[in-house]
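sry for the spam today, last one i promise. C-alpha cells for design, 248 residues
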C-alpha cells in the first residue's frame, strides 16, 4: 500500500485530501496542530499533533517512516488583512513561517526518504495569491509566491532521483479559513461579508468559489502514476481568476 503524509491534514483542504487519497487506496498519515480535529479523523489514519514549523517534531514524524510515496505540504494560515503599513512584524513572521517554512521542513525530511526509494511526489499548497498577489494581504501573498520558487527548485533537485514536485494554487475555497478572510476584508474595505464574497466569485470566469474536494482531486492526480511526467508545474484550481481584486 502506498503512503501519503499531509500536513494540516485534519480539517479543511487537508482533510479533503486525506479522504481523496484514502479512496484511492493510500495509507494516510496526517499532522496537525489541532488535537480535536485529529481525534475526529478516521480510525485508520495515523495522526500526529505537530506544529509544521517545529523542526524536531517534524523530524520525529519522518523518523517513523520506512517509506513515503506522496507528501502534501498543506499547512498554512491566511495571515492578517491590512495595508502593509499596518502589518505587525510578528504577524508577518508568523504567516511566512507557517506557510513557507512549514513547506520547507516537510520537503527537507521527505526528500531523503523519496530519494532512497527512487520515486515520490511532493505537492505544495500555494495559492492564486502566489500568482497575482492581493492588496492588504502582503505576508500571505509573499509566502505563497515564495512557495512556487521553492517548488521549482525542489523539482530541479529531486527530479534526477525520480521525485516529482508540483504546486497547486487554490482560488477562494469555501470553508472556515475563507470566512475569516471575508470578515477581515469586509472590515478593511467597509463592505459586508456578502459583498466581498460576491466580488471574489465575480472575479473568476466560472463565477464561483472552489470546494475543498476540488483541491483534493488535483492533489490525488498529481500524486498518482497518471501524472508520472508532471513536475515543476504550477496548477491553479480556481475557476480561472480574471481579477484578483474585484470591486463589487
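last one done:
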Amino acid at each position: 500500500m502506498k503512503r501519503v503524509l499531509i500536513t494540516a491534514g485534519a480539517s479543511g483542504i487537508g482533510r479533503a485530501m486525506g479522504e481523496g487519497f484514502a479512496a484511492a487506496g493510500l495509507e494516510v498519515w496526517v499532522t496537525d496542530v489541532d488535537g480535536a480535529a485529529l481525534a475526529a479523523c478516521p480510525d485508520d489514519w495515523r495522526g500526529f499533533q505537530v506544529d509544521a514549523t517545529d523542526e524536531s517534531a517534524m523530524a520525529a514524524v519522518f523518523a517513523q517512516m520506512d517509506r513515503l510515496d506522496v507528501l502534501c505540504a498543506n499547512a498554512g494560515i491566511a495571515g492578517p488583512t491590512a495595508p502593509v503599513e499596518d502589518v505587525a512584524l510578528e504577524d508577518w513572521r508568523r504567516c511566512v513561517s507557517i506557510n513557507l517554512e512549514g513547506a520547507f521542513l516537510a520537503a527537507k525530511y521527505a526528500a531523503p526518504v523519496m530519494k532512497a526509494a527512487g520515486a515520490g511526489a511532493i505537492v505544495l499548497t500555494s495559492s492564486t495569491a502566489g500568482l497575482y498577489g492581493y492588496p492588504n494581504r502582503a505576508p500571505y501573498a509573499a509566502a505563497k509566491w515564495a512557495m512556487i520558487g521553492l517548488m521549482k527548485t525542489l523539482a530541479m533537485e529531486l527530479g534526477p532521483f525520480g521525485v516529482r514536485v508540483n504546486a497547486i494554487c487554490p482560488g477562494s475555497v469555501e470553508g472556515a479559513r475563507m470566512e475569516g478572510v471575508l470578515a477581515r476584508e469586509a472590515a478593511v474595505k467597509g463592505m459586508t461579508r456578502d459583498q466581498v464574497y460576491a466580488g471574489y466569485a465575480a472575479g473568476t470566469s466560472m463565477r464561483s468559489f472552489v470546494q475543498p474536494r476540488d483541491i483534493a482531486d488535483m492533489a490525488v492526480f498529481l500524486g498518482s502514476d497518471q501524472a508520472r511526467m508532471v513536475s515543476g508545474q504550477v496548477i491553479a484550481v480556481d475557476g480561472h481568476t480574471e481579477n484578483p481584486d474585484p470591486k463589487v
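The first strand starts at residue 3 and ends at 7. ok im logging off now
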